[in-house]
Write a structure and sequence with these properties.
The protein is α/β, with parallel strands linked by helices. It is built from eight helices and ten strands. An eight-stranded mixed sheet has the order 1-2-4-3-5-10-6-9, sandwiched between helices. α3 packs across α8 (about 285-305) and α7 runs antiparallel to α8 (about 285-305). The longest helix is centred in the C-terminal third of the chain and has 21 residues, at about 285-305. The chain starts with 17 loop residues before the first helix and ends with a helix. One of its GO terms (molecular function) is zinc ion binding. This is Peptidase. Keywords: Hydrolase, Metal-binding, Zinc.
């Protein structure tokens, strides 16, 4: 039996305080540029879409404008489709899948939908290839009133004006090997609990809303993505990341109860994508393409079943 290595910050069994958070923050370094990778691409789309700045994150010495792409013109009578990426900044294909969709496919839906794309919810974490914000808070457990995460609070403010008209919301994520090597051990250390190792699913899967499941919607996305990359099988317990597999490549969470991004609207159709970029059967380009295929399949299904 192998005993998991202790996380290098904190004392086992004791939740982090400000000193531990500061020690963790001191270890974070910038690896890439939000301005170059995201904002410059969004700027190129201004001729075709409205670009709104829906908030600013002041993480001194850095300030990050939060931007979303919206249909031009906006027609109140049309269904609204919401695409979000980069809630976890290290999940790269979510950011670039949202941007790729806006660049190459969004115009095909002009006049049929109102589209909102928020491609990078967590720019500080995107630059540092991390899951948390600089306060060691996970934005994807923080989409609730009085949110402790500025990233989550800003998106909630953006969505408030149209949340009840959203028909479909797809939130783009990845599951990576670093979930087990870094992020889940860090979470356990932060919360003062024991880390229980789990398997990293090899392949694409979806998270449906257990409170309002839409199995046909999920399977339409799975079918589209299966043409691009492989679908994650259930583990020996019939589960993916500890949750029962309810259909090929699909598990369920209570999205709103857990404060997850995919639960922020009243959309009939909701899902969270998860690709696996560390698989020997996949590569970064394939993961981006899978995200784009998932978005298109989600919109097409929602339009066909309005």
């Amino acid at each position: 039996m192998t005993t998991p290595a202790l996380y290098p910050i904190g004392t086992p069994g004791i939740p982090w305080g400000s000193a531990e958070v500061a020690a963790w923050l001191a270890k974070q370094t910038r690896h890439r540029s939000y301005e170059q990778d995201v904002l410059s691409v969004v700027d190129e789309l201004r001729s075709r879409f409205d670009v709104v700045e829906y908030g600013r994150l002041d993480y001194s010495p850095d300030v990050y404008p939060l931007v979303a792409i919206k249909s031009r013109p906006w027609h109140d009578e049309l269904p609204c489709m919401l695409v979000t990426g980069g809630v976890h900044g290290y999940e790269t294909s979510g950011v670039h899948g949202a941007l790729r969709f806006a660049q190459e496919h969004a115009s095909a839906y002009a006049g049929r939908i109102n589209l909102v794309v928020a491609p990078c919810i967590s720019p500080w974490a995107y630059e540092r290839i991390h899951r948390w914000n600089p306060h060691a808070v996970d934005p994807n457990r923080s989409f609730r009133d009085l949110s402790p995460a500025g990233e989550s609070a800003a998106l909630l403010r953006l969505v408030a004006e149209f949340r009840d008209s959203v028909l479909m919301h797809i939130d783009l994520h990845e599951t990576t090997d670093t979930d087990e090597s870094e992020f889940r051990p860090a979470l356990a250390a932060r919360d003062g609990v024991a880390h229980e190792p789990d398997e990293v699913p090899d392949g694409f899967y979806l998270v449906d809303d257990s409170e309002h499941p839409q199995p046909a919607f999920q399977q339409a996305i799975i079918a589209a993505v299966a043409r691009i990359t492989h679908i994650a099988p259930a583990d020996r317990h019939g589960q993916i990341i500890g949750s029962p597999v309810v259909a090929p490549g699909v598990i369920e969470y209570p999205l709103r109860k857990l404060g997850l991004c995919a639960g922020i609207t009243s959309a009939r159709y909701k899902t969270t994508t998860e690709v696996y970029p560390d698989s020997p059967q996949a590569n970064p380009e394939q993961c981006i393409a899978a995200q784009v295929a998932a978005i298109c399949a989600a919109i097409d299904f929602a339009l066909a079943h309005t």
